[in-house]
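Consortium newsletter contribution from the modelling node. Members have asked for a concrete example of what our holo predictions look like. Here is one, prepared for the xanthosine-5'-monophosphate complex that several groups have been discussing at recent meetings.
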Amino acid sequence: MPPRITPTRGISERVASGRGARVPLVTGTGGAPPEALRRELRSVLIPASRIRSRVGELGRRISADYAGRELVVVGLMNGTVVFLSDLIRQIRLPLSLEFLRATSYRDSTRPGLLTITRTPPVELGGRHVLVVDDILDTGRTLDTVLRRLRRLGPASLRTCVLLDKPERRERPAIADYVGFRIPDVFVVGYGLDLAGRHRNLPYVAIAIPPSGSGGRV
Ligand code: XMP
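And here is the predicted structure:
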């Protein structure tokens, strides 16, 4: 059964997040995908212009919250690469960048076994660490990463995600900074992929499920 998405309403509501910040809730779509991608994409969910302005807002909030401190930003590869590179350029603080690789979706729209490789080579003890991920879904990835990083004794540990799908949460992982709340649909673009494709799209789009995925997107 395809997700219920109202075709014309766009990003129309704002709701409160766990930390008192207001997070845009995406309740409609941002229009039809380009002709060449209509067989793979159902619709554009969040247009590039809306992502740009929201990433600017997140950067300003993070800069204000950490004013006077130095940040270590830990990006979870590969999906976060586009969001991360835009976000750090909106943060007006001294920061360094580290990466972890977390993989749970292997060429499908269903989660597989979660593997995390590469511990950040820098010393995180006593540092202010901000973990950046593309999307918070079941919460397994962030929960696992946070447990691992907590053991390294950071002065503070927070999380920032571009997208939050609260309907599928299994673990209590909460993001401190959230770009957009979205319904339970499988999305691609702006770094997110389906079997390695579509990371380069400048917008977030709803993917058409590949045959054999049971239709869940
Ligand atoms: P969990 O369930 O651990 O998921 O919170 C986080 C990771 O799952 C991937 N993910 C997606 N990837 N479109 C994607 O391209 C999606 O709709 C989607 N939902 C979850 C993603 O790698 C994320 O870091």
